[in-house]
Amino acid sequence: MRWLKFGIIIVLFLGGVYAVSMTFVDENKNFTIEKEINYPIDKVYPQFNNLQNFARWNSFFTDNKNLTLQFYTPYEGKGSAMTYRDKKDDSTFGDIFIRYENPEKTLKLQLFEGKRNTLYTIDLKFIPQNDKTKIVWYVHTPKRPFLERSLNLISEDFWISNIDKSMKTLYHLLGNKVDKETQRESLKFDSLMVEQQDSQLLLGINVTTKNVKDALFKNIVMNHNKVLNYVKMDLAKKDDEYGEPVMINDADNFKDKEVSYFYGIPLSKKEAVSDNNFSFRTIESGKYYVIFYQGSYEGRVKAIQQLLTKAKHDTMRIGDLQQTFLEEPTTDNKTVMKLSLPVYK
């Protein structure tokens, strides 16, 4: 009995301490987060005022694979809305609305969360800075009941972590999208160039096949479809969430009777892969000799020989050849690709 009384006294004491400490915690939180992204405003803004785009890179949605999303017209700008719901957790759901828009300058969003319709307001300010965009997030959290104010102590850290992660994903997503557009506008075919290329993370498969007429290209098409279907269907990636497919192989194995290669699609980060046929491979950043080529797949050999001759003339060591398909490999005589040969001293 004495222990029971002692326990009650301890609980009451701790409760009193907690209650007193809550008097020093604000009933709601307002905080500002500033981020800069290396893409112009006309590329960045549509990723915010279109909630379908917004949900593709915001980690609040992408980190929970159990969420179902529904979008309502208009799909962008003032008046657009979306709902989310966790299929396995009935307590996790909410609605997001765009309440105000000043195009490429300001957005005002409202988030209603859970059964209480807990209201968060998110004001976004966009500041163009040449080819960059500064984004200022003004977040206003809801008023909490007295005994729930401790949640305000962690809310800011949660929002900062979420926004940091989301902006990194957005950067990679825009990189895939903008790089594709830029490449199409400025391609110079059959000219040997030197580039400093960034690293890439590829998800793909290892393959060995015969190197006889038509057989190699047909094998590439088959494995392209296999990898693409896995990325789009199993991983649920949208078109702007992955990069151009890349084939990696020995630069001079076009002369061999059999060809071994890795065929992969660039992703922004590693994810759990349930099929053991697929694996991740990293392409390191560095100096590359590059030729853009279009024509029959067999005709690429001449361009590859140009790269090898240049490397030999410059007394450079070489790595594996990377064949980036700028258009999906479907027809043997209409390939469009970037041939990249890593070189080292």
From TrEMBL:
Q: Which InterPro entries match?
A: Reg_factor_effector_dom_sf (IPR011256)
Q: What is this protein called?
A: Polyketide cyclase
